[in-house]
Amino acid sequence: MPHYLAIHNEPAVPRERVAGRWIELAKERRAIWLKTWYNFGIGRRFCWWDAPHKEALEEIFRDHGVPWEEIIEVEHTTPADWVGRED
């Protein structure tokens, strides 16, 4: 399944409200929520999802009332993938 990074910007939304959404999103079956990096001080979140396509995430966010700025298809790598490579 493709990987996506969803970017959310909600500086006026309290942390408790966002966390309340996470309870429901963790149960979602149309896509798999893997991880979120967040800074509640500025209201920004970067959420890693696996989904069949971008439109599935748009539908999920609409259904749960979660606004988004952007949804980007991404690939994943780590330093371990590159250690010892000479090319």
Q: What does this protein structure show overall?
A:
The protein is globular. It starts with a strand and ends in a 13-residue tail after the last strand. The mean pLDDT is 95. The protein has two helices and four strands; from the N terminus they run E-H-E-E-H-E. Strands 2-3-1-4 form a four-stranded antiparallel β-sheet, with helices on one face. By secondary structure, the chain is an alpha+beta fold. The chain has helices spanning 15-25, 54-64; strands spanning 3-9, 32-39, 44-50, 70-74.
Query: What distance separates the N and C termini?
Result: 28 Å
Average pLDDT works out at: 95
Tell me the number of strands. Answer: 4
Order of helices and strands: EHEEHE
Going across the major beta sheet, what is the strand order? 2-3-1-4
Helix-strand category = alpha+beta
* SS element count, helices: 2
As residue ranges, the low-confidence spans are none
Q: Main beta sheet, described?
A: 4 strands, antiparallel
